[in-house]
Design goal:
This protein is α+β, with helices and mostly antiparallel strands and about 425 residues long. The chain contains 14 helices and ten strands. The protein has a six-stranded mixed beta barrel. Strand 2 and strand 3 (about 115-125) form a beta hairpin. Helix 2 (about 20-60) packs across helix 12 and helix 10 runs parallel beside helix 13 (about 390-415). It is elongated. The protein starts with a helix and ends with a helix.
C-alpha cells in the first residue's frame, strides 16, 4: 500500500468526484483564484520594477551621482569652493570616480513677456560636463558647446522652453534673488536684492524626467558666478562613479579623505521622495493583490469544512480501524495543500511567463484592441518594461504557500475532532 497513508487518502479525496459537486467547484475555483492572484502579483510587480528602472535610468542620466559642496553660509550669501581645480584633481584620482565637474546652482525665475517660471539655474563648465552627465547627448536643439563664458547663452529643458514659448535665439530674462548684508535700518542686517540678467536661448534638452525638463536651465559657470558674486568659484563638484549604487557610501569616504568639512549629497538623497513613492505604490499594490490571494486561500478553508462534514462517516470508519487523529489532520492538510500549492505553482509559472514576455505580449494587445497603453505622443516611455527580481518572486510564492497552509489548519483540526460513535450513530 502507498505510504504514508494520510497522504494517500488526501490525494484520493482531491481526485474524488463524488456527490459534492459544490465542494469541488469551490475547491477548483479557489485554485484558479490563487493562480490568477499570484500571476497578477508577479506580473504587476515586475512591470513596476521595469518602470522604476526606466525612470531611474533617465533620472540618473540627468542628475549627478554625488556632490561635494562648500559648507552652507546661511543668510550670508552663496557658498563657494575655493581652489576647486586642485580638489577636483585629487578627487578624480580616487577609486571608482569616473568624472568630476564643477557646478553652481542658483534658485531663480525665468521670464518672457507675461510668462514667468521658477527654475534651477545651473552654472556648468561645458568641457567637463560630459564627464558627469549625458546632457550633451540629450540636446534636441543647439549644442552644449554654445555655453561660452560671457556670451550670456542659456540652455533650457524642453518643458520649460515650451512653458515660456521660446525657441533658439529668443531672449529671456533671468531673475535671481540674492541675500546681502546691509547697514542700519534693515531687519536682521540682511536685505533681499534681485539680480536681473538677459540671456539668449542657445539650446534645448530633453531627459524624459519631468523635474529636469520642467525646472532646469544651464548657463556657463562664469556667468552664474558673476550673478552670484562668487568671484568665479563654483559651489561644489559633481561626481560620477563607475558604480552608481556605490555612490552614497563612496562620497562620504571621499569627503573624509579630502577633508575641508565639505557637505555631501548623492542621488539617493536628492530623489528620496521619488523612491519612497515608488516603494509605497509597490507595497500597496502587493497588499491589495495579496488580499485577493488570501480570499482565494481561505475559500479552501470553506471547501474543506464542507468536505469534513461530507466525510464524517469516512473519518469515523478510519478512526475505528486505528487511524490516529494526527493522521486525520494529515489527510485534510494534504487535500488543502495540494489545491493551494498547485494553484500557487501554476500562478508562479504563468506570472513568470507573462513577466518575461510582457514586451512582446503588450504590442499584440494594442493591435487587437487598437489602443496604446503608453501613447508615445504623451509618455516618454512608449513600451511597457518589465524586470523580474527573484527575491520578490520567492517572497510572493512563499507567502502564498504559507497562507494556504494556514487555511487548512482549522478544517483539519475539526476533522480530527470527529467522534466515531457520534458520526456512525445514524448511519
Amino acid at each position: 500500500m502507498f505510504h504514508p497513508l494520510p497522504l494517500y487518502i488526501g490525494l484520493r479525496y482531491v481526485r474524488s468526484r463524488g456527490k459534492g459537486f459544490f465542494v469541488s467547484f469551490i475547491s477548483w475555483t479557489s485554485m484558479v483564484g490563487i493562480c490568477l492572484g499570484v500571476a497578477a502579483l508577479i506580473t504587476i510587480i515586475s512591470i513596476m520594477n521595469g518602470l522604476e528602472r526606466e525612470y531611474s535610468t533617465r533620472l540618473l542620466s540627468a542628475t549627478t551621482h554625488a556632490k561635494l559642496s562648500a559648507p552652507s553660509q546661511g543668510a550670508e550669501g552663496q557658498a563657494s569652493l575655493h581652489n576647486w581645480q586642485a580638489l577636483a584633481e585629487r578627487v578624480r584620482r580616487e577609486e571608482g570616480v569616473a568624472g568630476v565637474a564643477p557646478y553652481l546652482d542658483l534658485q531663480g525665475m525665468l521670464g518672457r513677456g507675461q510668462e514667468l517660471r521658477p527654475a534651477i539655474i545651473r552654472g556648468i563648465d561645458p568641457e567637463l560636463e560630459g564627464q558627469v552627465s549625458g546632457v550633451a547627448s540629450r540636446m534636441t536643439q543647439g549644442a552644449l558647446s554654445d555655453l561660452k563664458a560671457g556670451t550670456q547663452n542659456i540652455v533650457l529643458g524642453t518643458n520649460l522652453a515650451w512653458a515660456l514659448e521660446v525657441q533658439l535665439g529668443d531672449e529671456i530674462t533671468l531673475l535671481v534673488p540674492t541675500l546681502t548684508a546691509q547697514g542700519e535700518g534693515v531687519v536682521g542686517g540682511i536685505d533681499l536684492v534681485p539680480r536681473i540678467r538677459n540671456f539668449t536661448v542657445s539650446g534645448i534638452f530633453e531627459f524624459g524626467a519631468l523635474e529636469q525638463d520642467s525646472g532646469l536651465a544651464l548657463v556657463n559657470l562664469e556667468d552664474a558666478a558673476a550673478i552670484a558674486d562668487t568671484k568665479g568659484d563654483p559651489a561644489g563638484l559633481r561626481l560620477k562613479f563607475t558604480d552608481v549604487f556605490a555612490a552614497p557610501a563612496r562620497i562620504r569616504e571621499i569627503a573624509a579623505v579630502v577633508g575641508g568639512n565639505l557637505d555631501t549629497n548623492d542621488w539617493s538623497r536628492e530623489n528620496a521622495s521619488y523612491y519612497r513613492a515608488i516603494a509605497i505604490e509597490k507595497t500597496m499594490m502587493a497588499v491589495i493583490l495579496m488580499l485577493a490571494v488570501a480570499v482565494a486561500a481561505f475559500n479552501i478553508a470553506a471547501a474543506l469544512v464542507m468536505v469534513v462534514n461530507e466525510k464524517r462517516t469516512d473519518i469515523a470508519i478510519l478512526r475505528t480501524i486505528g487511524i490516529t487523529p494526527r493522521a486525520i489532520v494529515g489527510v485534510f492538510l494534504t487535500q488543502g495543500m495540494v489545491i493551494g500549492w498547485v494553484g500557487a505553482l501554476l500562478g508562479l509559472t504563468l506570472g513568470l511567463a507573462i513577466a518575461f514576455n510582457v514586451e512582446s505580449i503588450v504590442p499584440i494587445i494594442e493591435r487587437v484592441f487598437g489602443v496604446h497603453i503608453f501613447d508615445p505622443t504623451v509618455y516618454y516611455i512608449s513600451e511597457v518594461p518589465s524586470e523580474v527580481r527573484w527575491p520578490q518572486v520567492a517572497t510572493i510564492t512563499s507567502i502564498t504557500l504559507i497562507l494556504t497552509v494556514l487555511a487548512t489548519i482549522y478544517p483539519s483540526m475539526r476533522g480530527a475532532a470527529t467522534e466515531p460513535a457520534e458520526a456512525l450513530r445514524y448511519e
